[in-house]
Design goal:
This protein is α/β, with parallel strands linked by helices. It has 14 helices and ten strands.
């Protein structure tokens, strides 16, 4: 049986750090970060990094591992993280991967997407449009060129917009069309866990966390990084808004309001990404017993779920090593129907996910 990679994700401010540490302590293992902002050692408060106390509770990797002055790509992360896992699995049967960057999680677990080569002149034309017409122009072009990716990408990240639009312009096709249909072979088996909060509770948590970041010195941290504001790593929520304030383009109050709004929008796009994947089993952070129960069942029986959504219903499949063993559908009126009943010992997995789908689990 291959070693296990517990992939713990969820939207920003959902409680990934504390639960990942609890899991690492339970399985006596290490944590690998898949948070693309926490790689950088110069960014602390605005990225909600684990505290020194939290870092001491379990071994962590890819935290403060790089500088914002270094170019660091998802491809490099994939290679380095795979090499690290090879070493960690020599000592552990299970490793924890956690973070909210879906692109980096997918690269490690499924492999990088293959995109066509983009002529330098095309990329330069997109960069020129950003400089002359602003990020709003690129956002609107992407909305037209690739509505699917528009719903997922961080619209405040110019690097991601430039990359996507360069592919669109050079190929004449949507960027999302080139995304990988099948997963690359891996030497580990991922089990996907997504932390779930009702939307209002999640947004309240995001707003409170921004307030705590401000108390901890986010504005001062952003000011210290202001001379390097052109770097790709700093084109992100929590810093860009303060840079605009420092430039005199907005007020401090407006900058704080935008940080909260853009953080909520980022969470919404993360949730869109998870829904597109369809393989995440959701749990509330407080459901420790259920999480361990699912992990044990998934490891022993090779169980996982796969969800598909349409405008009128959600279909939730329970699979064992790729074979359908249970299916439930939930319509827009929150009525659940079981088309394929799973074995009794496994039925709770479908019932639990169906409950989250129709809001019976709170």
């Amino acid at each position: 049986m291959p070693p296990t990679l517990i992939v713990l994700s969820g939207p920003t401010a959902s409680g990934k750090t504390s639960l990942s540490i609890r899991l690492a302590q339970h399985f006596q293992t290490a944590i690998v970060s898949a948070d693309s902002r926490q790689f950088f050692r110069e960014m602390h408060i605005g990225t909600a990094k684990p505290t020194a106390k939290e870092l001491a509770q379990a071994p962590h990797y890819f935290i403060d591992s790089h500088s914002i002055t270094e170019g660091y790509s998802v491809g490099q992360y994939e290679r380095e993280a795979l090499e690290l896992l090879q070493k960690l699995y020599q000592e552990h049967e299970t490793v924890i991967l956690t973070g909210g960057s879906g692109l980096y999680i997918n690269a490690l677990c499924q492999g990088m997407d293959q995109f066509p080569e983009v002529p330098e002149a095309v990329r330069q034309s997109v960069e020129d449009d950003l400089e002359k017409r602003g990020i709003g122009y690129l956002q609107e072009e992407l909305r037209t060129a690739d509505p699917e990716y528009y719903e997922e990408v961080d619209l405040n990240n110019p690097h991601r917009l430039i990359r996507a639009l360069s592919v669109c312009r050079s190929s004449g096709q949507p960027y999302s069309r080139f995304r990988k249909a099948g997963a690359a072979a891996r030497f580990f088996r991922p089990i996907y866990l997504q932390l779930h909060w009702p939307r209002k509770e999640l947004y309240d948590r995001i707003n409170r966390r921004v307030d705590l970041m401000l108390e901890d010195g986010l504005e001062e941290e952003a000011r210290s990084l202001y001379p390097q504001k052109h770097l790709t790593a700093l084109q992100t929520v929590g810093y860009q808004e303060f840079f605009d304030y420092f430039d005199g383009n907005t007020s401090r109050e407006k900058a704080i309001e935008l940080i909260k709004r853009n953080s909520r929008r980022y969470a919404k796009r993360q949730l869109t990404w998870f829904r597109r994947d369809g393989h995440w089993k959701r749990f509330r952070p407080s459901e420790w017993g259920e999480i361990l129960r699912y992990l044990e069942l998934s490891r022993k029986e090779q169980l996982h779920i796969q969800k598909r959504r349409s405008d009128s219903f959600s279909q939730i499949d329970l699979l064992q090593a790729g074979r359908l063993v249970g299916r439930a559908t939930v319509d827009n009126k929150a009525a659940a129907a079981y088309e394929v009943k799973p074995p009794a010992d496994w039925a709770w997995v479908l019932e639990h996910e169906t409950g989250l789908e129709n809001h019976k689990v709170h």
